[in-house]
Amino acid sequence: MLFRAETTSRRPSLRALLALSSLLVLSAGASSRANADAKAALPAGSGALKMVHSPTSPQLFNPGTLENHIDGEAQAVKQYGFKSCTYAEYAPGGTGTQLLTVDIYEMNTPQDAFGYYSHQRSDSAKITKIGAEGYIEPTALNFWKGPYYVKFAITASKPGPFQPEMPKLAQAIAAKLSGSTELPAIMKLLPPGYKPQSNQYQRSDIAGQSYINNGVTAKYPSAGQQAELFVAIYPTPAAAKQAYMKYQTYLSAPATAAMGAKPAAIKGLGEGAIGVKTKFSGEVVASLSGKYLIAIRKATSQAAAQSIVKAAVAHAK
User: Fold this and answer.
1) Cα–Cα distance between 67 and 82 in angstroms, integer?
2) pLDDT per residue over 222-266, tens digit each?
3) Is the pLDDT of residue 2 over 50?
4) Domain boundaries, the chain
C-alpha cells in the first residue's frame, strides 16, 4: 500500500496537465504565427521574376530538418538560437532552373539574428539600408531585422537580369517582417573606437575558448590592425571570475605564451588583470570586472592593449 500511495503522489494533477497543455498550445501558436510572418513576407515576384511554386518553394525547415537544406552550414546557424527557415525560389516567369533564392531564418531573439548576420558580414562589405542593416554582393544580399536573418543568392549562370530585382525583393520582405531595427542592447558594451562593421555578437567559443560565451567583439585599429577586443558577460560575478581564472591559466601556459615571455599582473585595471605576449595572438591583456571578462588580443604593444581594455572596463560599468 505504501508503494502504491507513493506512486500515486507522483502523478501530475489535472491542473498541472491543463497548464502544460496550455503552454504547449501557446508555444505552437507562437511558432505558427512566426512561420506565417515569414511566409507572408514573401512577395509574389518582382519584375520578370516570379516565385516558383513547387514542392521545394516555398518550404519550411526546422532544427531537425535544417541539415537537409544547408548541410555544411546548419550547425553554425543553430548556434544562434535557430527556430525555423522559410525558403523560396524566384525565376523568370516562375519556371526554370535559373534562380534567385531567399532564406528567411527566424532566430530566438534579435540579438541572435544580429549575431549570425554580423558573423557573416565582413568589415569591408558594401552596406545597404535594408531592414536594420544589410550588405550586398554581385550575387548575394543579406540583411537582418528583429529576430530574422534573410539571405539572398543568385544561382543563375548569367546573374545580370537578377541583380536589379534582388534589392527590390529584399526591401519588400523587410517591410513586411516584424521586429526592431535597433542594435541589440548588448552591443553597447563596446567602447567607441572600433572599426566600422567589425562589431559582432558571438554566442560561444569566443577567442577559441569553450568557456567564453555570450559576448561582443570588435577590432580596434589603434591597438593594431588585427587587434580585437571582446567583452563577455556572465550571469554572476562568480561565474565571470571562474572564466577569468581559466583564461589566465591558458594565457600563462608554456604552449600559449611566447618564448621567454612572462605573464605580468596589471594593477588598477578592473578587479584583476594580466598581460602577456603570446605565440599566436600577439600582445594580450585580459581583465575581470564584475560579471564581465574583458580582453584584447593581437595587439602590437602592451601599452596599446591596456589602453583599450581600460576604456572597455570603464564603459561596461
Assistant:
1) 12
2) 999 999 999 999 999 999 999 999 999 999 999 999 999 999 999
3) no
4) 29-176, 185-315
pLDDT value at residue 227: 98
Q: Cell numbers at residue 263, please?
A: 605573464
pLDDT tens digits for 30-66? Answer: 444 445 689 999 999 999 999 998 776 799 999 999 9
* Rounded CA separation 221/61 (Å): 40
| pLDDT the model gives residue 1 | 34
Query: Cα separation of 134 and 167, whole Å?
Result: 10
What's the confidence (pLDDT) of residue 57?
A: 74
The span from the CA of 187 to the CA of 170, in Å, is 25
Tell which CATH classification among 3.40.50.1240, 3.30.565.10, 3.40.50.450, 3.40.1000.20 matches the domain 185-315.
3.40.1000.20
pLDDT tens figures, 108-143: 999 999 999 999 999 999 999 999 999 999 999 999
